[in-house]
Design goal:
Blueprint lengths: L4 H13 L2 H7 L4 H15 L4 E2 L6 E2 L1 H24 L9 E5 L1 H19 L4 E5 L2 H9 L5 E5 L15 E13 L17 E6 L4 H10 L8 E7 L2 H9 L5 E4 L4 H6 L3 E2 L7 E8 L7 H12 L2 H4 L2
InterPro entries: LysR_HTH_N, LysR_subst-bd, WH-like_DNA-bd_sf, WH_DNA-bd_sf
Pfam family, one: LysR_substrate
Organism: Billgrantia tianxiuensis
């Protein structure tokens, strides 16, 4: 197989932009020349990598698999050349994608604790919804993914291809603002209709709450008055006294402590969650490999926030 490195770099650029014209500009070539190079790559590999029938373009299933290999080869070659040319050996930042609530309220404390055991750990963090994060991880476009573990397997991540570390056990709590007596203004024990602040249909945390309520008559008394995909958005509305919501405990720790929020139900209404750090085993970036080996040697309490 006769492959040119520039073809691999072209393919990675195309996967990022989903546009032949935008990729051609990025690679400083004309669009016809760029298209010819992608065709040449496909001929060398022996399969169609790009579905040209859609706009923006998509990768074929074979193209998605090959993308991980292409990124690996380009990154490893660039790193090797950099070392040979005397480029600084400073530790490269790891790219991490995380669910919004984890990025805002969980990650800072956890990464600080992890660095106590590993030393300085440069990272770049991007918050996004779980579906987008999984797509980015599958395509090898990030190093690590921080997400809630899905016990119902709706994430469809093969444990061998996407190994993970358990790094936290948390709960989603039903919370409300207090009334004048310090009791929840909206309580799950109430027999009346309850204003409910819900996660949108596709939100990961929403699935967990729906499973809790699936066979319980309580769901008939919950009147949805607001929806959003983000836990922090629901928390803001709860603080305004609009209704009650289920929020991860680490997001409302300070508000519960100060009394600005109170539990809206007892522990039977808690939703247990596990937080995991995922990687793709097909990606062999040295920084990720080193971090994974180091984490395996740490005591379990160092991994848990």
């Amino acid at each position: 197989m006769n492959l040119e490195t520039k073809w691999l770099e072209d393919f990675v650029a195309l996967a990022n932009t989903r546009s032949f014209s935008a990729s051609a500009r990025q690679r400083h070539v004309t669009q016809p020349a760029f298209s010819r190079r992608i065709r040449a790559l496909e001929q060398a590999v022996g399969v169609t990598l790009v579905d040209r029938s859609t706009t923006p373009i998509n990768l074929t299933p074979e193209g998605q698999l090959f993308l991980v290999t292409a990124r690996n080869l380009v990154e490893q070659l660039n790193e090797c050349l950099g070392h040979l040319r005397g480029v600084s050996m400073a530790r490269e930042a790891l790219d991490i994608v995380a669910a919004h609530s984890l990025a805002l309220s969980f990650y800072p404390e956890w990464i600080s604790r992890l660095q106590e055991g590993l030393g300085e750990l440069p990272t770049r963090l991007v918050a996004m919804n779980v579906g987008e994060a999984i797509h980015v991880l599958r395509e090898g476009n990030c190093d690590l993914m921080l997400a809630y573990h899905d016990q119902y397997a709706t994430m469809q991540l093969d444990a061998e291809v996407f190994p993970s570390f358990s790094i936290g056990q948390v709960k989603m709590l039903p919370v409300s603002v207090p009334d004048a007596k310090g009791k929840p203004r909206f309580s799950l024990e109430s027999k009346d209709t309850i204003p409910y602040l819900a996660y949108t249909q596709g939100a990961f945390l929403g699935r967990s709450v729906r499973m809790l309520l699936k066979n319980d008559p309580l769901r008939l008394r919950l009147r949805t008055v607001y929806e959003t995909a983000m836990a922090e958005g629901l928390k803001g509305m709860v603080l305004q006294g609009v209704g009650l919501a289920w929020i991860p405990d680490f997001c409302v720790r300070e508000e519960l402590k100060s009394g600005r929020l109170v539990r809206a139900g007892d522990e039977k209404w808690d939703v247990p969650l596990e937080i995991r750090l995922y990687r793709c085993s097909l990606v062999h970036k040295p920084g990720v490999e080193k971090l994974w080996r180091q984490m395996m040697k740490l005591p379990r309490d160092f991994l848990q926030a």
